[in-house]
């Protein structure tokens, strides 16, 4: 067992919607999906990255009071959460494939200093940069 | 209007904010294009009057001023990273005239395009921050109207330049 970061969580507006997006559109896999009352611990992972999980977390009880949950939902919806970066082998090919599946791109692939990057958002508003590995 | 009666983004409907974000994203993706309020309102699926008010409430600046900051940001990147002439950059970033570009650029950043170009020529590499994110970090922080900024300068109220190099 190696040491390191295992889970990083994202806030999403709806866990079912996020699950569909990350699994059916981005090609991630479900790692854990367990419930305890209202609480649902849901993580997905990239197929090439078995040691890392992305948590898809819904603001709300029992973790957040109503006002805090509303603030978090607003922050996500207006794109105020920190950037996420997805590394791909071929940015233009991934762009075509994901766009064909209805992913909302905010930026078409651009060549910058020899690296190609594009931008998309998940349904909740989390912003991803998709960068071609060099 | 006081800040309390105007309300804050935290009280706005997240579904509306998500649609306003879409309009902001469209300006980001094509800041050189013309973005009159009715066009932006259509992207967000709300009325023009509702759009302008909601956008400012959500993002702190009116849509037109947001577009201006994005154009200045892009122009700054082009001055820094390309050898395009200042005239070509003004045209490419959406200004109708070189004069308006130069004046607005100076008003927002405190420096003329020529000065930024000369500083860039002697600049150094900024390290391993993804370029797209670096650009956002260099975004001019235009919190007041350009016209108000001009008035303050005329009255001798000096504000420090908000453009800072990341070093």
Note the topology.
The complex is a heterodimer of chains A (134) and B (167).
Chain A: E1 7-11, H1 15-25, E2 29-36, E3 39-45, E4 53-57, H2 66-77, E5 84-88, H3 91-100, E6 104-112, E7 115-121, E8 127-132
Parallel strand pairs in A: 1-4, 5-8
Antiparallel strand pairs in A: 2-3, 3-4, 6-7, 7-8
Chain B: H1 3-6, H2 14-29, H3 37-44, H4 48-59, H5 63-81, H6 86-92, H7 98-109, H8 113-121, H9 131-137, H10 146-154
Helix pairs in contact in B: 2-3, 3-4, 5-8
Can you describe what's shown?
The complex is a heterodimer of chains A (134) and B (167). With 134 residues, chain A is α/β, with parallel strands linked by helices. Chain A has helices spanning 15-25, 66-77, 91-100, and strands at residues 7-11, 29-36, 39-45, 53-57, 84-88, 104-112, 115-121, 127-132. In chain A, the strands form two sheets. Chain A has a four-stranded mixed sheet. The longest helix of chain A is centred in the middle third of the chain and has 12 residues, at 66-77. The radius of gyration of chain A is 16 Å and the shape is globular. Chain B is mostly helical. Chain B contains ten helices and no strands. In chain B, α2 crosses α3 (37-44), α3 (37-44) crosses α4 and α5 (63-81) packs parallel to α8. The interface between A and B is medium-sized, with 26 and 21 residues.
What share of the residues of chain B lie within helices?
Answer: 55-70%
Low-confidence stretches of chain A: none
Helix-strand topology string of chain B: HHHHHHHHHH
DSSP E strands of chain A, number: 8
Structural class of chain B: mainly alpha
Structural class based on helices, strands and sheet pairing of chain A: alpha/beta
Helix content of chain A: 10-25%
Segments of chain B where pLDDT lies below 50 for 5+ residues?
Answer: 1-5, 161-167
Helix count of chain A, per DSSP?
3
Instruction: Report mean pLDDT of chain A, rounded to a whole number.
Output: 96
- Rg of chain B, nearest Å: 17 Å
Radius of gyration of chain A: 16 Å
User: What is the straight-line distance between the termini of chain A?
Assistant: 29 Å
Mean pLDDT of chain B: 83
Estimate the global geometry of chain A from the Cα principal axes.
Answer: globular
**N-C termini distance of chain B:** 40 Å
3D shape of chain B? globular
Give me the oligomer status. heterodimer
């Amino acid at each position: 067992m190696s040491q390191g970061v295992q889970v990083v969580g994202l806030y999403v507006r709806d866990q079912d919607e996020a699950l569909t997006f990350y699994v059916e559109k981005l090609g991630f896999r479900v790692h854990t999906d367990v419930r305890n009352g209202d609480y649902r611990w849901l993580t997905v992972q990239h197929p090439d990255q078995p040691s890392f999980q992305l948590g898809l977390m819904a603001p709300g009880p029992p973790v957040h009071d109503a006002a805090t949950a509303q603030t978090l939902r607003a922050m996500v919806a207006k794109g105020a959460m920190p950037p996420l970066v997805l590394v791909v082998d071929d940015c233009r090919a991934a762009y075509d494939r994901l766009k064909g599946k209805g992913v909302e791109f905010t930026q078409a692939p651009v060549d910058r200093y020899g690296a190609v990057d594009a931008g998309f958002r998940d349904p909740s508003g989390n912003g991803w940069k998709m960068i071609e590995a060099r | 209007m006081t800040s309390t009666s105007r309300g804050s983004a935290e009280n706005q409907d997240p579904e509306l904010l998500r649609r306003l974000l879409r309009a902001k994203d469209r300006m980001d993706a094509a800041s050189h294009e013309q973005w009159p309020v009715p066009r932006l309102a259509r992207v967000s699926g709300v009325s023009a009057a509702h759009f302008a008010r909601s956008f400012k409430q959500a993002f702190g600046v009116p849509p037109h001023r947001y577009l201006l900051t994005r154009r200045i940001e892009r122009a700054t990147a082009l001055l820094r990273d390309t050898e395009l002439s200042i005239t070509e950059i003004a045209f490419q970033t959406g200004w109708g005239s070189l004069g308006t570009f130069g004046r607005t650029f100076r008003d927002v950043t405190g420096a003329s395009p020529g000065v930024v170009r000369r500083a860039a020529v002697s600049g150094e590499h900024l390290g391993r921050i993804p370029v797209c994110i670096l650009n956002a970090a260099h975004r001019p922080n235009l919190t007041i109207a350009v016209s108000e900024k001009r008035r303050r300068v005329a009255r001798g109220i000096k504000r420090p330049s908000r453009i800072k190099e990341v070093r």
